[in-house]
Amino acid sequence: MKTIRVLTLLTLNIVIATSLTYAQYWGERVLEKGFEHTEFFFAPNYLMPYGIGSFKGTTAGLVNDPLQEIIVNPSRLGLDSTRDVWLYTDFRGAKNVKEENTWVVPVYMNAYDMRYAASSYIYPYPRLFLETRRELEPVFSGAAIFRPLPEAAPSVYIGATYQYILQDSKYYTVPQNIYKTAAGYDFNGQAVAASSEMPIVDKYSGKDDMHQAGHFGSAFVRYSPPGGLDLGVKLSRASFARGGSYGSANYWDYSSTYTSLWGNMELRSQSYGAWDLGGGFTYHPTPKFSLGVTAGNLWGDAVQALRTVDTSYYGYGSSPTTNYYNRSENGLFQWNHQGTTSYYGADIVAHTSPTATLNFYYRHQYSNIDIGLASSILDTSFSTYLYGDTNQTQTSISRSFLMDRRSGSGVQNITTDRVMASVRWQIDDRVTLSVGAQLEWYRMDITTSESVLLANRYTYTSTYNNYASQTSQDESKDLQWTFTSKRTSLQIPVFLTIQTSKYVQFMIGVNRDMTAWNIDDVTLALFRYRSSIQGGVETRKTNFGERYTVPNENDSDVRTTLLAGIGISPSEKLNLRLLMVPNFREGIDGQELAQLQVWLGLTVTP
Fold first, then answer.
1. How many CB atoms neighbour CB 195 within 10 A?
2. 485 near 444, Cβ under 8 Å?
3. Which of 28, 337, 345, 359 is least surrounded by CB atoms within 10 angstroms?
């Protein structure tokens, strides 16, 4: 079945590549599609000891752990009465995952690693992936909870968490940028004169790197005044930077007859920073029942920039054939997202029996993000080609020019509602079973409007039969983009803990994730004017519109995550925990292994 699937993809590539072999400029593609989204942008961030695989979204309220409790409500910060200090750290094995767009749009996959192929293969979402690369995971995670005054104020707790991301990888491209260059071709994908005679020999591989670093820290305080009330507050800070470059300066063979030089570089820089302030309270009307409320607000910004540079020169001077080619391209693309995320929720804990505890919580989250957009592209090329024999020489000359300038703005709104219910059952002194169900509704709406000023020219002349060709296009327009993504997911986690002895504990978990989504993607181009020359005929249109609608997407995905772990306690004050998670995806021919990850955690209670 996999062989058939690969053959199908190859056939699709060949068909599409035939029709779009040198498509480089997408005039009606909006800039915002080139923004790289990351899951922690404009979202509260927490350290989750059991947040491995798809358990990341379901262990809060399911597993009895101090760090999992403060995710539900900061007023749940605390330790059992026998402890004054609790320390935790873990080491997480990075996992290679097949990258896909979680905010669903059709993916344009560029054969960028094939240096001189400028084709853009169009792959339909969601079954085809961009590439396989490492998912961002902290290289260090640490947490501490303690009572600063255990005798004078035993109900005061202070906690802190910190996560550090550091990862280097190969450079990967923005999948939906509006422009891509290639040696020997102009912006239209036209082969310049004598481009087939350009022998490209890579003498210097150049840059190919992506560096990513992030710091995520949180501080918590809890105080319990008399009257069965717990008060908690948290303050978090996130900062993240990503940057990289890809390209080379290639020096071709040099002799007395020809000289060649080509340089191509793509550089990206990204930064994200956010503050998150929240709080909550928990009221205990009885020892067996508690009700909590939490709320908070996050504010931050994400700034990204992409720079492209392409310079080429080729000259050959052996009579009667003389070739000359010169190319210069500069592109700058900028995105600026600034916004806030507000959230609130409620939680209930009920001890229904001495061995059973019911947990319930609801969380609503709303993000409002302002978008700023800008770009500038300038691309020029010139080439001559002299050919013939000693009796007659023919000359071909080609020139091209492209200028695209854009500026715009927009708004992104994200709404998430999550309901989680779970039961923790102490079956006996050795076995604990936790079962839950989580239902989540997610909706993202993006609207952008960008003004575009476009001018391009292409001329070709030849002394052979006195041939001449000229094309041009000038446009002034506004691109209005509307994107809506709706997702509904149901997750059912099951967690079993078996204490085989005083020193050894086994953990087994399974999480079933069933997700369905719906996507709408519409671009409306409102032209102030469009003037073009084709074949010597000039055409001009004013004040008209064109609508580009991506077919509505409806799809579903089913994943199963298994968890196996072992905890070893050589001392009452030390616990080592090893977690292993294989993640399976529902494929055409059944369950397929999608990823595997290993975590090692350490808990110390001095």
1. 20
2. yes
3. 28
Predicted pLDDT of residue 584? 64
Residue 553 CB contacts under 8 Å (≥ 6 apart), including other chains: 104, 125, 126, 517, 518, 519
Tell if the pTM clears 0.85, that is, is over it: no
Alpha-carbon gap, residue 544 to 207, rounded angstroms? 45
CA atoms of 190 and 464, how far apart (whole Å): 19
> Backbone phi, then psi, for 204, in 5-degree steps?
-155, 115
Residue 480: which of 373, 563, 359, 328 has the closest Cα?
A: 373
| Nearest in space to 57 (alpha carbons), one of 519, 597, 490 | 490
Cβ-count burial 330-339 (b if 16+ within 10 Å, e if not)? ebebbbbbeb
Task: In whole angstroms, give the CA distance from residue 230 to residue 281.
Answer: 5
CB neighbourhood size of 541 (10 A): 11
**Of the candidates 363, 357, 351, 347, which has an alpha carbon nearest to the alpha carbon of residue 439?**
363
CA 77/CA 29 separation, integer angstroms:
48
Q: What is the DSSP letter of 313?
A: E
d(CA 329, CA 259): 20
Check whether 112 has a pLDDT greater than 50.
no
Residue 83 burial by Cβ neighbours in a 10 Å radius (0-12, 13-18, 19+):
middle
Closest CA to 56 of 457, 438, 321, 573: 438
Least confident of 36-45, 91-100, 395-404, 532-541: 91-100
User: Does residue 181 have a pLDDT over 70?
Assistant: no
Q: What is the pLDDT of residue 151?
A: 87
Residue scoring higher pLDDT (571 or 589): 571
Residue 580 exposed, middle or buried by CB count within 10 Å (0-12, 13-18, 19+): middle
Name residues whose C-beta falls within 8 Å of residue 209's C-beta, 6 or more positions apart in sequence: 168, 169, 170, 171, 244, 245, 246
Among the ranges given (314-318, 430-434, 439-443, 571-575), the one the predictor scored with the smallest mean pLDDT: 314-318
d(CA 525, CA 538): 21
For the segment 532-572, what is each residue's pLDDT rounded down to a tens digit? 988 788 899 999 998 888 778 788 888 888 899 999 999 98
Q: What pLDDT was estimated at residue 34?
A: 86
- Contacts of residue 28, Cβ cutoff 8 Å, sequence gap at least 6: 479, 523, 525, 546, 548
